């Protein structure tokens, strides 16, 4: 008991002489004396060694010591004041928090999601494939055999180590992979990034995104293709937009077409975006070439199908009236944060 008295006396002296000039020093004081492993707690633990007849007195003593130490802490704290106190363990939880900036969806994702959801309402399922492709899936199976001049329609990145591999130039390669699975009828859309060795400019990039579509069943006709794409355009751009189909050439479709919509910028009267024609091309399409079906083991006498492919950046540029495609890949948040996803 006497020893305890002596101990407490010494500690009190020490505590009395303590100062705290900074919030760190104040926190050090708190930890040293009032923390879970601090002196007050440790000394309280001594109670168990005190003889029963002295317990009452010792209890009072220890309690007083605790109150003394807490009072000193409060005193030190009040002399420090302000911000320092907050950080020393007494945060004011009623203060409003700092606002965290929320990210926004990328405009290309917004547009791609919208394209996909329109086709999904028509029963198209989403299918994906690899960005590094082999020559067969990207070209040969799509009726573009080696040395076919139409291979030059797209400038391809080949892999240095093995030129049999390449970065896919279109998501048409996913068509092939899905057709090979042999489950018919087949109704899919294939979104994804594609690569072409093009000089980067306001209108071209060495990578961009496409959405490819494919429908294969019995008795699929060009009328089905037109109706599907017409529905898409109206959902995407509104009821007033006009469409037209122009004959075109793709090795993997026969007949082939390109679809234009009336210019959304000038409403068809002619501007720089539509090069004064009133129309802008948005996609390529056609009836799947029988050779392509055969290449994938599908009976071209029994089944027919249509396919189409569109560039997501092109649609986004029209949708948001953006004139420079490079903005999409420069990661400038001042540009990117302007787009709000509707879903
Ligand atoms: N693959 C073509 C391209 O990248 C787009 C395309 C055109 C896809 C016609 C098709 C299609 O499925 O039928 O330019």
Please explain how this structure is put together.
By secondary structure, the chain is α+β, with helices and mostly antiparallel strands. It has two domains: 2-79, no CATH class; 108-336, Bira Bifunctional Protein, Domain 2 (BirA Bifunctional Protein, domain 2), CATH 3.30.930. It has helices at 2-16, 23-34, 39-45, 55-80, 82-87, 107-121, 135-138, 172-180, 222-237, 290-295, 312-320, 333-336; strands spanning 125-126, 132-134, 165-167, 186-195, 207-217, 243-250, 253-262, 279-288, 304-311. Helix 1 runs parallel beside helix 4 (55-80) and helix 2 packs antiparallel against helix 4. The relative contact order is 0.11. Bound molecules: 3,4-dihydroxyphenylalanine. 3,4-dihydroxyphenylalanine binds at residues 170, 172, 212, 250, 253, 284-286, 307-309.
Fold topology:
Blueprint: H1 2-16, H2 23-34, H3 39-45, H4 55-80, H5 82-87, H6 107-121, E1 125-126, E2 132-134, H7 135-138, E3 165-167, H8 172-180, E4 186-195, E5 207-217, H9 222-237, E6 243-250, E7 253-262, E8 279-288, H10 290-295, E9 304-311, H11 312-320, H12 333-336
Parallel strand pairs: 1-4
Antiparallel strand pairs: 2-3, 4-5, 5-9, 6-7, 7-8, 8-9
Helix pairs in contact: 1-4, 2-4, 6-11
3,4-dihydroxyphenylalanine is lined by residues 170, 172, 212, 250, 253, 284-286, 307-309.
* Ligand roster: 3,4-dihydroxyphenylalanine
- The neighbouring-strand order within the major sheet is 1-4-5-9-8-7-6
The CATH architecture of the largest domain can be named as 2-Layer Sandwich
**Strand pairing plus helix content: what structural class?**
alpha+beta
How is the main sheet built?
7 strands, mixed
CATH superfamily grouping of the largest domain: Bira Bifunctional Protein, Domain 2
């Amino acid at each position: 008991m006497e020893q305890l008295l002596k101990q407490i006396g010494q500690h009190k002296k020490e505590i009395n002489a303590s100062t705290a000039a900074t919030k760190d020093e104040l926190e050090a004081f708190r930890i040293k004396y009032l923390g879970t492993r601090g002196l007050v707690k440790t000394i309280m633990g001594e109670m168990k060694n005190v003889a029963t007849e002295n317990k009452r007195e010792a209890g009072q003593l220890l309690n007083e010591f605790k109150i003394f130490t807490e009072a000193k802490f409060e005193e030190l704290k009040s002399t420090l004041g302000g911000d320092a106190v907050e950080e020393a363990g007494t945060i004011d939880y009623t203060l409003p928090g700092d606002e965290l900036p929320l990210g926004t969806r990328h405009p290309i994702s917004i547009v791609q999601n919208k394209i996909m959801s329109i086709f999904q309402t028509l029963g198209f399922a989403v299918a994906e494939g690899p960005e590094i492709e082999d020559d067969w899936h990207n070209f040969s199976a799509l009726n573009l055999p080696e040395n076919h001049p139409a291979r030059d329609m797209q400038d391809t990145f080949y892999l240095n180590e093995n030129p049999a591999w390449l970065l896919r130039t279109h998501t048409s390669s996913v068509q092939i992979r899905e057709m090979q699975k042999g489950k018919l009828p087949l109704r899919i859309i294939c979104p994804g990034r594609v690569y072409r060795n093009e000089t980067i400019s306001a209108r071209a990039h060495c990578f961009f995104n496409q959405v490819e579509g494919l429908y294969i069943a019995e008795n699929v006709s060009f009328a089905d293709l037109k109706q599907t794409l017409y529905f898409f355009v109206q959902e995407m751009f509104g009821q007033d937009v006009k469409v037209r189909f122009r004959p075109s050439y793709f090795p993997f479709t026969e007949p082939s077409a390109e679809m234009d919509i009336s210019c959304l910028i000038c409403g068809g009267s002619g501007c720089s975006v539509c090069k004064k024609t009133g129309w802008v091309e948005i996609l390529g399409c056609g009836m799947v070439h029988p050779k392509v079906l055969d290449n994938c083991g599908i009976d071209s006498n029994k089944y027919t199908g249509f396919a189409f492919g569109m560039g997501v950046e092109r649609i986004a540029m029209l949708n948001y009236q953006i004139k420079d495609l490079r903005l999409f890949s420069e990661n400038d948040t001042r540009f990117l944060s302007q787009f709000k996803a509707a879903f």
